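Methods — Computational structure assignment.
A single polypeptide chain was analysed. Its primary sequence is given first, followed by the predicted tertiary structure written as structure tokens.
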Amino acid sequence: MSKSYLSGHRLHVASSNTGTLRWISNEEDSDNAHTLRMLSLRNARTRRWTRSLSFRGHRDRILAFSFSPDGDYLATSSADKTVRLWRTRDASCMRTFTEHETSVVQVVISEDARLLVSYSKDDQVCVRRMCDILAWEGLLHD
């Protein structure tokens, strides 16, 4: 993952297995809500933005993010001690996890999309099965 700067906002460039490039900007809004903004390109050669979404809800800095391999989900972790799982198609927050007692400094969706793992500043690791999360949301089909 490479990093660059644009208009004073830190940007992260990420790609999913679908070949879509995503530019991510981590910003603080006027009401102190922290927002991750995502701009996507379907094809890097066309240079056309296919969509722009805002993932808004964390109450402190967003420290890490991870896409699912298919690009359908985005996990974020924050200094607000939470992990959030989002749908990338509409930027809706599916779940907020509050098990951590300190800032969550890392979050990863495994390459096989089976696990959502988070790590906090106090060395606590939380491992969640994606199939359990999706089943709870009614999104897992037989």
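Note: The CA atoms of residues 134 and 140 lie 5 Å apart.
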